[in-house]
Amino acid sequence: MTEEQGPVARAQGPVAGERAPTHEPKEQVREGKGPVREGKGPVAEMHVRGPGPARLFRFLIYGLVLASSAAQYSVVPILPVYAHRFGLTGVQQGMVLGATGLATLAVSVPAGALSDRFGARRLTLWAGWLISIALFAQAVAGSFPVLLAARLGFGIGFAVIWTAGLSWLAEAAPGGAGLGGTVASAGVGGVVGPALSGTAVQYFGLMSPFLAVAAGFAVLTLALGLLRMRVIAPPPPARMGTSLRAATADRRTIVAAAAIVTAGGTTGVSALLVPAELHVAGASPGQIGLVFALGGVLFVVTSMLTTAAGHRAVRMSVVMAGMLALAFALSPAVLASTPFAIVTMQCATTAMRSLLWTVSYPLAAAGAERSGAGIGVVMGLLNGVWAATVLLGPLAAGLAAGRLSAQAVFGLTAAACLAILAVTVLAAGPLRRPARVACVPGGDLAAGGDLAAGGDLAAGGDQMPSRSRSGNG
Question: How many angstroms separate the CA atoms of 96 and 204, rounded?
């Protein structure tokens, strides 16, 4: 199967030329766990049945994402407390901060393959309980090895939540309809987590924020485990190697991964240089924190607006325009080193990163439906790319900042963004309209093999499915 040919029978039902079944068995429903198949051929879709359970399901998944992001960043403002209590060196503090990214890099793709094989629901619930245990261990940690082990355990659970949890959400709403909200939820967690953890430690002690989040994770995980949903089973999963080859050959997934590289890389540069530049200009720690809080608010607002736009925003052209806008958003800090220029750059780039992250996950989910790759492997691939940028971005920025001015580093970052965009455009190839439209048995349309799931036409593969075969989603 080539990239241009689109999905074939395994993912989308009968191909042209095959004989349609004369009898359609009734749909079989199983409550809670385990898949059920709709008797219309190998339908690669899973739906949450009923608006009430669907809304509750999304709320619970968004809650896990928000809590995981809050717990990830809540350690930042209280790291000096850990350093004082355990006598941590600078390297050890870096290990505590980087543990989540390291675990995510190592676990994401294997977790995605396990999610495709054993079920996203099972792995998501397992990850929720693992995070609860890891946060409890962090709360009672009495030494650096225990603290580091707890952060690594949290990182494993974090990676699985962002892989299996998002896969479960994508399976419940094919086309990635609910994935955009996960980025807004993560943005809220990134803003609220550090603020609440610092206050809680100041008034209630070092254990308090992590015990509270551990209890929250336990409640959310228990509620998800008790939730009963009627679903349609996905097709049998492909092997991890097959899924990876299909994903890396799909244009949507390529564009989504490039967007995450661009967004993640610029995040590391800003996180390293913006505080340093504002400090040199005379800004207090409180003022620097306010700048990042303002950026966090813009991140959430942009993500919510992008999510509200729905399928109209989830296009490769939107992602490429966002990458171009992100490169130009760095220009204020390239042209001047004044506080106004730095703050303007930080706010503008944060908004563009939010757009890219919000669109990337549903775009890749649509690519998985089109290419036949396992949704878990695709989500794991994106999370692995994100983790690599988290680990390497600040390191590269620090090496460059040791030899060049901040303005020059921002300029090089903008040039790198443009270079990644150029490579992405070449890799994605030109957008083509289908040459012909033909009917296939079962009532679906096939436009030169480039048809989106659910029978909706995809102009050159740049259109997300707007509805599923059963009319939901």
Answer: 22
Identity at 423, one-letter amino acid code: V
Q: Where are the beta strands (DSSP E) in 62-196?
A: none
Report the distance separating Cα 25 and Cα 38, nearest Å: 8
The backbone torsions φ and ψ at residue 439, rounded to the nearest 5 degrees and listed phi first, read -90, 140
Distance of CA 221 to the CA centre of its chain: 19
Give the chain's residues under pLDDT 70.
1-52, 173-178, 180, 229-241, 285-286, 429-473
Classify burial at 163, counting beta carbons within 10 Å of its beta carbon; exposed 0-12, middle 13-18, buried 19 or more: buried
82 DSSP assignment:
H
Question: How buried is residue 2: exposed, middle or buried, by Cβ count under 10 Å (0-12/13-18/19+)?
Answer: exposed
CA dihedral for 436, 438, 443, 449, sign (positive or negative): negative
Rounded to the nearest 5°, which phi and psi values hold at 435?
-80, -30
Can you say whether the dihedral through the CA atoms of 266, 269, 275, 278 is positive or negative? Answer: negative
Distances (CA, A) of 61 to 220, 223, 228, 384: 8, 10, 14, 20
C-alpha count within 13 angstroms, C-beta hemisphere, residue 196? 19
- The residues with which 438 forms a beta bridge, in sequence order, are 446
Residue type, 319: V
Residue 6, phi then psi, degrees to nearest 5: 75, -170
Cα separations in angstroms, 141 against 98, 134, 199: 18, 10, 20
User: 17 phi and psi, to 5 degrees?
Assistant: 100, -20
Question: Nearest to residue 206, comparing CAs of 66, 98, 79, 69?
Answer: 79
Q: What is the pLDDT at residue 453?
A: 38
Strand pairing partners for 256? none
Instruction: Name the residue type at position 419.
Output: A
What is the residue whose two structure tokens read 């967007």?
A: 259
Q: What is the 8-class DSSP label of residue 37?
A: -
Distance CA 96, CA 138 (A): 11
The burial class, CB within 10 Å (0-12 / 13-18 / 19+), for 183 is buried
Q: Is 457 helix (H, G, I), strand (E, B) or coil?
A: strand
Q: pLDDT tens digits, residue range 235-278?
A: 555 566 677 777 777 888 889 999 999 998 888 888 778 888 88
Using alpha carbons only, how large is the chain's radius of gyration in Å?
23
Residues 12/453, Cβ–Cβ less than 8 Å: yes
Extract the runs of DSSP E, i.e. beta strands, from 253-379: none
121 close to 46: Cβ distance less than 8 angstroms: no
The DSSP-derived string for 430-446 is -----S--EE-TTS-EE
Which residue from 136, 122, 160 is spatially nearest to 71, judged by alpha carbons?
136
